[in-house]
Amino acid sequence: MATSLRNHDPQPAPGGGVTLPPSPEKIQQKFDLSIALVLSFWPALTLSVQNLWGGPLSSEKRDWFAGAISDLFSTQPSDTVDVEYLEEFLLQVMNDEFEVNVEDDSAMETASKIVGLRKLTLQGDFGMVDEMYERWREREARGGEKVRFQKAQGDEDEEDEDEEGDSEEVEEEEDEDVEMETPHLVKAPKEKITPKVDEDGFTEVVGKRRR
């Protein structure tokens, strides 16, 4: 029998005693679940997995991605993995593993959600995680969601032709049942990406972007 996580209220201890706080294992389990859920709702990653931009094992790479994020919080000092740090990590993995440059602010929003959920789960507050899990279950029951690829802006000589079809495209898009925002992505070239070392000795990934 499946156990619903919707109303995951703490139950009183046997005999009417005080409810014990969640164990470290329970906290870690909920945090790991929250990471996987946040990534499943990230349109940029969903689109990359749908199109196999990470290769035939793109879905498995997403699972690995969630584990790698969890490891960041487990192996780095607690004050190191902030929103900015995690955003850079997300962008680098998207470039390295899926050959995609994320052009919008969705990586920052995703990082912010994960950092916020880290704080909540450490406090034993699992309400948001449980709500997200219910949303995920409802989405899966509907057969999941598809995300469309919004191409980067083309050359100037193509803009006039694009404008002529804008009204028709808008009407078509309004008819489509798309529940996730269309991410702004640029497919990165398949050439080997060159690492660059900054003044502080940190390695960053520099990828070429299409114009």
Write the layout of secondary structure elements.
Layout: H1 24-40, H2 43-50, H3 58-75, H4 83-98, E1 100-102, H5 106-122, H6 127-141, H7 159-164, H8 166-175, E2 185-187, E3 194-197, E4 203-206
Antiparallel strand pairs: 1-2, 3-4
Fold and architecture overview:
The chain has helices spanning about 25-40, 45-50, 60-75, 85-100, 105-120, 125-140, 160-165, 165-175; strands at about 100, 185, 195, 205. About 25% of the residues are buried. It is globular and about 55 Å long. The chain is mainly alpha-helical and about 210 residues long. The protein has 8 helices and 4 strands; from the N terminus they run ααααβααααβββ. Strands 1-2 form a two-stranded antiparallel ribbon. Strands 3-4 form a two-stranded antiparallel ribbon.
In round numbers, the mean pLDDT is 76
Low-confidence region ranges: 1-11, 151-163, 167-180, 190-195, 205-211
Q: Gap between N and C termini, in Å?
A: 53 Å
Count of DSSP strands:
4
Q: What general form does the structure show?
A: globular
Please state the CA-atom Rg, rounded to the nearest Å.
Answer: 20 Å
Strand content range: 5-15%
Order of helices and strands: HHHHEHHHHEEE
Structural class: mainly alpha
Oligomer: single chain
Give the strand line-up of the largest sheet: 1-2
Our count of helices gives 8
> What proportion of the residues is helical, as a percent range?
40-55%
Largest sheet: 2 strands, antiparallel
